[in-house]
Design brief:
Elements (H helix, E strand, L loop, with lengths): L9 E14 L5 E10 L2 E6 L11 E4 L7 E10 L2 E6 L9 H7 L8
Antiparallel strand pairs: 1-2, 1-4, 2-3, 3-6, 4-5, 5-6
């Protein structure tokens, strides 16, 4: 489902999905709730102070063990909610339209 004028397809969570934010150096951690997620980013509600989100990069831990995670950077903050952008393995942001353009074209069969 697309909403809020987003280019990437976002999935809204029907139930509270508890996740954590962690500093890239491991010195801080914040509990939060995942509100929606896409291939390129997420919207979260953070518990506690948001001052640590001013770090250039941090991790969104999607599992309790920390084995599923995404490297992020802050995009916006509004009260207790924040938007994060996922950083790709090569360190570059890739818009969804660039990924589609790079994919090989195929003709649909009739």
């Amino acid at each position: 489902m697309r909403f809020d004028g987003r280019k990437a397809l976002r999935v809204r969570m029907d139930h509270k999905q508890a996740v954590n934010l962690m500093g890239s150096d491991g010195t801080w951690r914040r509990s939060c709730v995942l509100l929606d997620v896409s291939q390129s980013g997420a919207k979260i509600e953070v518990e506690g102070t948001l001052d640590v989100l001013q770090a250039k990069e941090f991790f969104l831990l999607l599992s309790s063990t920390g084995l599923a995670y995404r490297r992020c950077e802050l995009v916006w903050i509004d009260g207790t909610m924040a938007g994060v952008h996922f950083i790709t393995a090569d360190g570059k942001k890739k818009p969804a339209s660039a990924k589609a353009a790079a994919a090989p074209h195929s003709t649909p069969s009739k």
